Amino acid sequence: MTKIIDEPDTAEHKDLVGSKKRRKNAAMERKNVMSSEENAVLWKIPGSITVEAAMVVPLALMVIFLLISLDFYVHDKSYYTLCALETALTGSSYGRMDPENGEAQAKEKLGALIKSHRMPTEIARGNVNVTEDQTEVSFEGAVYRLWGAGAWEYKVSGTVETVNPKKRIRQIRMVKNVIQ
């Protein structure tokens, strides 16, 4: 029978096994040292960065949403101011001879301008009033805030005096005659 020997008695074999064990132990030590160095580097990062980010990011987002909401508000207010003046001018031009025709034309113009508005905000409510002396158009609307409940409301109006060329020319001639 053959006997299997776990560890031969030769010195050469003992050195070979010992060197394998030494190399394995050295590799494990290097691995432990590297992982401890990496852990030390990771632990050197301060935790205050997380706290600062938790405070700064919501604040920055709130400021961004505020600016976007403010942009929508300013845009709508200026757009509807322009619409009010343009509609009042249309009503005044057509209403010079017939106020009913002027009011119909102004309401038609009002509807066209409201339909052409492309911003994602509430559509304003408009009102037209044409008389013999003047045309008045007003708008009321609101822009909802992006971060919660509530809205910024605005009211704009435009008034145009109806000019009667005959009366105006007579007034100019009268002032000219008084001066001379």
UniProtKB/TrEMBL annotation:
Record keywords? Membrane, Transmembrane, Transmembrane helix
The source organism is Candidatus Fusicatenibacter merdavium
Instruction: Give TM regions.
Output: 53-74
Name of the protein described by the UniProt record: Pilus assembly protein
At the top level of its lineage, which domain of life is listed? Answer: Bacteria
